[in-house]
């Protein structure tokens, strides 16, 4: 009898820390947080990077947290991201995408299929279509930086925030290029950017449904205005089916999607295609302006390519490429989310197996690992412009963790089966903007000793990070 009691006692001790039916053999460690139901939701939303780093220190590369009634398993072993996420049968990406579309874009696309969307986009953002798109992008950018378009005389100084300067220029360039809007209405273009920013600023709150009444109104009004601008028939769609957007609109029409939903879908695509390049260009230039050695190296590289034809200039730029990779490592913070449709076993790179439970959510957050993993990148919070360069000036691809080569030192464009189809176009546009600014403008910090603004911590999870403030610059068009 004492033996039985003893066993019961031991058994109950075993269960006390979890106090839950959720713990089962081989499931990741569970951390429910102190607050019933809500769990860790507040901390997660306030600063996901800080929270998940803390959880990683406590539990390791895989753990389950509770947030707002949902059990979320977070996987931070980057060597197994591809293998885990390739199982599209057990792991569904459409359900959560639908929820976000509704919350953020007020959009219902019941047949939305991210996989086929990516295939459609891939066709239009590579090969000869990409070449055409890039050349149109270059023309549009050159048009936008003429003195008349900038409202600026040659050699006249003007002050601005670097984030605003980069984002507005690249947004307008991308909008003209991808949405085929008319070039010669700069007032409308400026207005569209301002509305887009009003909306973009609130995006994390809309996604988490934490916006207040006033913010809700601001978002609604910005959306309404943007929907009007984005009505497919108002956009210049001369290339029709040949262009990605024309093809997409045609697809929506074929699916029987009504006109109102079509223009709402346009705003989704505007954000997908224009929401990340501008902020990236800001961080690239911001890091260069606050790291003179890096700026010198990039400027020298551009000088060295001066004699090349325009279409060749972008091709061999290892220093700039390293600067961009390093910038993306520090600022690309998309959270990849899947719904677990059926119980599933996953295997970490150390061979350990874990069971994922049906109905839970799986999140992969490459920002924490590999990108900010101190075992992979020394002093990961530091910007080192040559981190992705070998001593002989070629691209560095070999990075190690505990003696094993890591598959990817950085994952800004998503994982193998979920790569951003617009990545080459994005790189080309960012490069073009940075090269144009460094060759055609004088651009400097208003305060020589200014530091980069801090990151807005609410944006972890939503693509490229944005700064909490701005960096004051002055610039002029060179004579
Ligand atoms: C620095 C800039 C950019 C970054 C870091 C970036 C990153 C990403 C990532 C990580 C995804 C995958 C999201 C997921 O599957 O969960 C994605 C999807 C996508 N990106 Fe990009 N992207 C950038 C710029 C662009 C540009 C310029 C375009 C097009 C012109 C573009 C078009 C797309 C499209 C169409 C998708 C698929 C969206 C869907 O699921 O329907 N992206 N991007």
UniProtKB/TrEMBL annotation:
Keywords: Endoplasmic reticulum, Fatty acid biosynthesis, Fatty acid metabolism, Heme, Iron, Isomerase, Lipid biosynthesis, Lipid metabolism, Lyase, Membrane, Metal-binding, Prostaglandin biosynthesis, Prostaglandin metabolism, Signal, Transmembrane, Transmembrane helix. It catalyses: prostaglandin H2 = prostaglandin I2; a hydroperoxyeicosatetraenoate = an oxoeicosatetraenoate + H2O. Substrate binds at residues 103, 109, 276, 361. Coiled coil: none annotated. One of its GO terms (cellular component) is endoplasmic reticulum membrane. Its main location: endoplasmic reticulum. Belongs to the cytochrome P450 family. This is Prostacyclin synthase. The gene is ptgis.
């Amino acid at each position: 009898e004492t033996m039985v009691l003893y066993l019961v006692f031991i058994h109950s001790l075993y269960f006390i820390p979890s106090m839950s039916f959720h713990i089962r053999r081989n499931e990741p460690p569970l951390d429910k947080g102190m607050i019933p139901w809500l769990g860790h939701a507040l901390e997660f939303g306030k600063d996901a990077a800080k929270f998940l780093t803390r959880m990683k220190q406590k539990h390791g590369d895989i753990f389950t947290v509770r947030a707002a009634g949902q059990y979320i398993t977070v996987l931070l072993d980057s060597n197994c991201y591809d293998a885990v996420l390739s199982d599209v049968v057990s792991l569904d990406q459409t359900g959560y995408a639908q929820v976000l579309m509704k919350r953020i874009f007020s959009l219902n696309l019941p047949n939305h299929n991210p996989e086929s969307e990516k295939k459609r986009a891939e066709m239009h953002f590579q090969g000869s279509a990409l070449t055409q798109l890039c050349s149109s992008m270059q023309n549009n950018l050159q048009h936008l930086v003429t003195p008349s378009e900038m409202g600026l005389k040659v050699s006249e100084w003007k002050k601005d925030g670097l984030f605003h300067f980069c984002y507005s220029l690249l947004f307008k360039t991308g909008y003209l290029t991808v949405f085929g809007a008319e070039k010669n209405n700069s007032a409308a273009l400026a207005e569209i950017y301002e509305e887009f920013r009003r909306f973009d600023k609130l995006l994390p709150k809309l996604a988490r449904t934490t916006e207040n009444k006033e913010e809700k109104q601001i978002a609604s009004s910005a959306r309404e205005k943007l929907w009007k601008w984005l009505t497919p028939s108002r956009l210049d769609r001369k290339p029709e089916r040949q262009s990605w957007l024309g093809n997409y609109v045609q697809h929506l029409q074929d699916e029987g999607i009504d006109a109102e939903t079509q223009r709402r879908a346009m705003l989704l695509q505007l954000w997908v295609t224009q929401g990340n390049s501008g902020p990236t260009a800001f961080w690239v230039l911001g890091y260069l302006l606050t790291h003179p050695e890096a700026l010198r190296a990039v400027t020298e590289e551009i000088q060295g390519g001066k004699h090349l034809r325009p279409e060749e200039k972008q091709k061999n730029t290892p220093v700039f490429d390293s600067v961009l990779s390093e910038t993306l490592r520090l600022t690309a913070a998309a959270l990849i989310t899947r719904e677990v449709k059926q119980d599933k076993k996953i295997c970490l790179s150390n061979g350990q197996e874990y069971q994922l439970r049906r109905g839970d959510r799986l999140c992969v957050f490459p920002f924490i690992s590999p990108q900010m993993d101190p075992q992979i990148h020394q002093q990961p919070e530091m910007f080192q412009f040559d981190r992705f360069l070998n001593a002989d000036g070629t691209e560095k691809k070999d990075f190690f963790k505990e003696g094993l080569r890591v598959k990817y030192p950085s994952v800004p464009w998503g994982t193998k089966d979920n790569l951003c189809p617009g990545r080459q176009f994005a790189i080309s546009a960012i490069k073009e903007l940075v090269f144009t600014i460094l060759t055609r403008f004088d651009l400097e910090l208003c305060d020589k000793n200014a530091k980069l603004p801090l990151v807005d911590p609410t944006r972890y999870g939503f693509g490229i990070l944005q700064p909490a403030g701005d960096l004051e610059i002055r610039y002029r068009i060179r004579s």
